[in-house]
Design goal:
By secondary structure, the chain is mainly β. It contains 2 helices and 20 strands. The mean pLDDT is about 90.
Length: about 240
C-alpha cells in the first residue's frame, strides 16, 4: 500500500486533504441476520430468516476500522489536524466511503463511536471505526463502458443500458454482477414488462419506474418489453 493511498469520505481524501497516511485497515464481513424459533420436543430449530426476503439471506451492518498516522511540525499543529479530522469524520451522517485500493466500489458508512487517539511528541495515531451497510456498491451503472475498473474475474461485458423497444415486443438481455437488485427503468412511453419467464406482468409508466417485486437476479436476465420507444435500465450492482 502506497503512503499516498487512503480513502475518500464526506467529500475529502485522507492524504490529499489532511496529509495523513492510512497505516492499516480492517474490513469485517457482515454477519447474517438469523431469526430462529424452536418448539417443545423439537429437534433443532425453524429458520424464518428469509421468509420476508423471498428466500434471500439478510445481512447486518459491518465494521471497517482504519488507522491513520499524523505527522506534524509541532504539538499545536498536531492538535489542529486532529480537530479537523474529527470534524470531517464525525460531524456528518452516512456518507460514501471509497478506498483507493478498492476501485469501482464504495461503502455507505458512518462514524458512530468516538475514535481512539494516541500522541507522541509531534506524531499521532488515530483509530477510527466506521459502521457500514453490508454491501459494497458499484460506483458506475451496469452498462457504462468503463474499462479502468473492469474486473475480468467477476464483471460482464454490457455495452449499454438504453434499448430501443418496438412493437409487438422486444427482448432485452441484462446482466447483473451482484446480488438481486431492483432497477430503475426509465421509459419514453408506457410499456409492459415480463422478467425471466415469470407469469407476472409489470406496468411501466413514462419516466422513472422502480417497481416493488421486480428484481434482477445475479447473472443473465431476460426482459421482454411490450410497447414502442426507449427503455433505460439503471442499477448499481451490490456485492459482499
Amino acid at each position: 500500500m502506497s503512503v499516498r493511498d487512503g480513502f475518500i469520505f464526506n467529500g475529502k481524501h485522507s492524504y490529499k486533504d489532511f496529509n495523513v497516511w492510512l497505516q492499516e485497515k480492517k474490513i469485517q464481513p457482515p454477519a447474517k441476520v438469523k431469526i430462529k424459533e424452536t418448539i417443545p420436543f423439537m429437534n433443532g430449530t425453524y429458520d424464518f430468516s428469509s421468509v420476508g426476503s423471498n428466500g434471500e439471506p439478510v445481512y447486518g451492518e459491518r465494521q471497517i476500522q482504519v488507522k491513520l498516522g499524523l505527522r506534524t511540525r509541532n504539538k499545536k499543529e498536531l492538535y489542529t489536524v486532529y480537530q479537523l479530522i474529527l470534524q470531517w469524520l464525525e460531524d456528518t451522517g452516512r456518507q460514501e466511503l471509497l478506498f483507493d485500493n478498492i476501485p469501482g466500489f464504495y461503502f455507505t458508512a458512518e462514524v458512530e463511536s468516538a475514535p481512539s487517539f494516541e500522541e507522541a511528541l509531534m506524531l499521532g495515531n488515530l483509530i477510527i471505526t466506521f459502521t457500514a451497510q453490508p454491501f459494497k456498491i458499484s460506483t458506475s451503472y451496469m452498462g457504462d463502458d468503463i474499462w479502468d475498473t473492469f474486473n475480468f474475474l467477476t464483471d460482464y461485458t454490457q455495452y449499454t443500458n438504453t434499448f430501443e423497444i418496438t412493437n409487438p415486443f422486444t427482448t432485452v438481455i441484462m446482466y447483473n454482477n451482484g446480488r438481486s437488485v431492483t432497477p430503475v427503468i426509465n421509459c419514453s412511453s408506457p410499456m409492459t414488462l415480463r422478467v425471466n419467464g415469470e407469469d407476472k406482468e409489470y406496468n411501466l409508466n413514462a419516466g422513472d419506474n422502480k417497481v416493488w417485486g421486480l428484481k434482477l437476479k445475479n447473472g443473465k436476465n431476460e426482459l421482454i418489453f411490450a410497447g414502442n420507444g426507449t427503455a433505460k435500465i439503471l442499477f448499481r450492482w451490490e456485492v459482499l
